[in-house]
What we know:
230 residues; alpha/beta; five-stranded parallel sheet; 14 strands; 40% helix; globular
Amino acid sequence: xxxxxxxxxxxxxxxxxxxxxxxxxYEVDCATDxxxxxxxxxxxAFDVIxxxxxxxxxxxxxxxxxxxxxxxxxxxxxxxxxxxxVDKVVGLKLGADDxxxxxxxxxxxxxxxxxxxxxxxxxxxxxxxxxxGFVFGDISVDFRKAEVTKGGQQLELxxxxxxxxxxxxxxxxxxxxxxxxxxxxxxxxxxxxxxTVDVHVAWLRQKLEDNPRHPQYIHTVHGLGYKFxx
Length: 230
């Protein structure tokens, strides 16, 4: 039974979401403030975290950032009434895996949770040739610890960036379309847009490449997508 940490302070929504998630076969724990959310989320005992942005004692952005800094890789789906693009970008850059604006359809929420769980399951085992790690240039990837170092210094990658890098490594040498990356790394092909793939690739290049404008590892395949060479 998948475990969900629901971080939400609105009683009516807590009750509605808990009832629906329970009926769908999920085990649900609730946190109603930032401190409790951080304490519960840090245990690593959950399969997915539904995280509201506006919380008593803090906000979901800070909770997400701190969880990632602690090395917690649990998928995070942010729930918020704030729909501005800048808020979505902030959440994703801090390590959130997905973003859903209130009010939302329950069916869409369930679909996104299922997508996050599928990705978590697929990334728990390494493809042939990756084993527990991979080294290219001065960069070392530890798949078990979800850690990346460059020149001996640890890089701070978001959960999404790490999953994207892992998919590149597992399919090195292959020309990967944006739609394929969207489907395999994000888990569904409707949202977000393929522009999101480009943004995450740009962030990844900034952290991995010595010269992001002339990448050595993540190459653009014009009119198609990307190719990882290592």
